[in-house]
Amino acid sequence: MIDNSEADVWARPEMSVVFRAEIMPGKNREERTFRIARVMPNGRVVLHNFNGEYRQTAFEKIDFLRNVGN
């Protein structure tokens, strides 16, 4: 049985996330892309090579189908 709190997690360690452009103006998509190091119990994430904890709203919406079929 899946715990509902686990099912609602929006991020997983090692997945890539992209900061919204308005948070990092002047940076291209590649420069705004980071890998998640750890997901905190409060839902925030810690990134590899970038200090701080970040909420889901700091990142572009994740499109799980983006590269399907390419």
Key traits:
4 strands, 26% strand, globular, 6% helix, 1 helix, 70 residues, four-stranded antiparallel beta sheet
Question: Your description of this structure?
Answer:
The chain is mainly beta and 70 residues long. The protein is 6% helix and 26% strand. It is built from one helix and four strands, in the order αββββ. A four-stranded antiparallel β-sheet has the order 1-2-3-4, with no helix packed on it. The longest helix has 4 residues, at 4-7. The mean pLDDT is 86.
Task: Offer a quick outline of the entry.
By secondary structure, the protein is mainly beta. The chain has one helix and four strands, in the order αββββ. A hairpin with a 5-residue loop joins β2 and β3.
